Amino acid sequence: MKVTVLEQTDNTLQMRVEEVRPGLINAIRRIMLAETPTMAIEEVVILENQSPLFDEIIAHRLGLVPLKTNYDQYVVSSDCTCEGVGCHLCQAGFTMEVEAPEDGFIATTGDLKPQDPEVVPVSDKIPIAKLAKGQRIVIEAYARLGIGQDHAKWQPVSTMAYKMIPHVKVDTNKCDGCKECVEVCFRQVFEMQKDKAVVVDEKNCTLCNLCVETCDVQAIAVSHDENNFIVTIESTGALPPMTIFEKGLDVFRKKYEELITLLPGRVPKVTPKKPRAKKKALPKKPKKKKEPKAPASKTKTKTASKSKTKKKK
Amino acid sequence: MIIPIRCFTCGRLVADRWEEFNRRIRQGEDPATVLDSMGLKRYCCRRMLLSHVDIIDDILQFAERT
Description:
Largest sheet of chain A: 4 strands, antiparallel
Order of helices and strands of chain B: HHHH
Oligomer: heterodimer
CATH class of the largest domain in chain A: Alpha Beta
Structural class of chain A: alpha+beta
Structural class of chain B: mainly alpha
């Protein structure tokens, strides 16, 4: 696996991932969406709520607020020494006490006072409720680590998408300069230069083949790489996209290692749960193709470490 | 009622953009350019703001006065 970062901002990351089978990249995508932990408000104690919104709606809104996540400090509450009761190791508290000074006052996440300065909402401007003059809201809330599989509020990415790298070629000898491909392409891949169609933004192509169909002289050829991808990650703000990618690979490796420990016994006495059976099929494929005899755990560590070296660049 | 926190489809945070969006629309700006400048590229997130009606203001008028 070869990773090249193409574009990076605070919340988005676009990279080229090469020499990976589609099954593997999809496994990583699904793990990033559903099994990479983040913090989100899980428990809300409503002490007072005079707003026009129901208690449940306020709790739900608070739950959906993306929180900055710090992996070093918190553990998943089911693995915690408190056995899921909730302590400072597995949950971060918030309090909110507002009384509207005038009509139409908006209680926002800025009014949410965090106990841990590291676990804060990604924005101070998220409205929780609108209040009339004198209405009060008094709330206690507790955030915990969780995964997207259990609830979408724990999903660290809003999009994690990949596409095969497109190749668009125009045969300049055949091109009659009819301009139709420029007009039909809605991703602005082509441009007219000296009465010939020229590919200017190949990466933007979605492989829709509209240009190929419109070209009367068959001058355009569109193809794609089967094992090279453009991966786009957009974070909700809870974690930097690169961290999500690394953590996703980390979760993947752990699953893989767990799978390996199950193999020597051949027949597992207890039939594994459904999701585990699914994961078995996915990571196996790339291993088979690359080095059939190499121990699988080794291949996995490589993948993870490679991505890490990328980040340093 | 009140602007949803996240996009229903993709999960992107949209609620923090509502106030700015509403203000700029009322000043007569084109919604498309406002959405573009706020970085809402996908149509799932764009419809969250475009189609939202903030009824909570109407309900607030019936608040119990003390």
